[in-house]
Design brief:
Order of helices and strands of chain A: EEEEEEEEE
Helix content of chain A: under 10%
Strand content of chain A: over 45%
Largest interface: A-B, 25 and 20 residues
Helix content of chain B: under 10%
Largest sheet of chain B: 7 strands, mixed
Oligomer: heterodimer
Number of helices of chain A: 0
Order of helices and strands of chain B: EEEEEEEEEEE
Structural class of chain B: mainly beta
Number of strands of chain A: 9
Structural class of chain A: mainly beta
Number of helices of chain B: 0
Distance between the termini of chain A: 36 Å
Shape of chain A: globular
Radius of gyration of chain A: 13 Å
Number of strands of chain B: 11
Strand content of chain B: over 45%
Distance between the termini of chain B: 39 Å
């Protein structure tokens, strides 16, 4: 199976930049998608195909993917960005989506 | 309004069965692939099962293979998950999630239904 590794938490001050990493063996050869989940709510897609934003997602959210690491970047962090963030790929070798363990973003 | 709404969760004893439903509205259900994703209390997301928009291709996570069955009724805009031989470790919020054919990300999620397996 394919394993995606995320840091358990990232802390950032308001107005600063948060970078959430997602590590995987040669993840740069996969398309990575990102979800935001606030407490008690369903996940929301915030980035797809590495760096495409769904409509309604602020331009402060951006993504990149290369080598063994994909990154979701949140610029000018706001209090409302505090949430859990999950990366996800489609692992074709076993015909299934795989999620990372999630990263909690704490806004100081 | 485009939405998914799960139902059917509840408390069940180990070894028991439960059938979850997901009602779709506001979009052409028959054009989308559908999935079940679960989240154990305090844990991360775990994909459970997939069904192609035509219903002719099914995938399951190893953890539920042979015990869970996904199905859909395109005429009634509904997705189902039949869960048998339930285990304590199946306790989770179960979400239905939509995907566009050929695009392996989930662009619409329901609010989830809680399944608790306990004696």
């Amino acid at each position: 199976s394919y394993v995606l590794t995320q840091p358990p938490s990232v802390s950032v001050a308001p107005g600063k930049t948060a970078r959430i990493t997602c590590g995987g063996n040669n993840i740069g050869s996969y398309s990575v998608h990102w979800y935001q989940q606030k407490p008690g709510q369903a996940p929301v897609l915030v980035m797809y195909y590495d760096s495409d934003r769904p409509s309604g997602i602020p331009e402060r959210f951006s993504g990149s993917n290369s080598g063994n690491t994909a990154t979701l970047t949140i610029s000018r962090v706001e209090a409302g960005d505090e949430a859990d963030y999950y990366c996800q790929v489609w692992y074709s070798s076993s015909d299934q989506p795989v999620f990372g363990g999630g990263t909690k973003v704490n806004v100081l | 309004e485009v939405q998914l709404e799960e139902s059917g969760g509840g408390l069940v004893q180990p070894g028991g069965s439960l059938r979850l439903s997901c009602a779709a509205s506001g979009f052409t259900f028959s054009s989308y692939e559908m999935n079940w994703v679960r989240q154990a209390p305090g844990k991360g997301l775990e994909w459970v099962s997939y069904i192609r928009y035509t219903g002719d291709t099914l995938y399951y996570a190893d953890s539920v293979k042979g015990r869970f069955t996904i199905s859909r009724d395109n005429a009634n805009n509904s997705l189902y998950l039949q869960m048998n031989s339930l285990r304590v470790e199946d306790t989770a919020v179960y979400y239905c999630a939509r995907a566009t054919p050929g695009y392996w990300y989930f662009d619409l999620w329901g609010r989830g239904t809680l399944v608790t397996v306990s004696s």
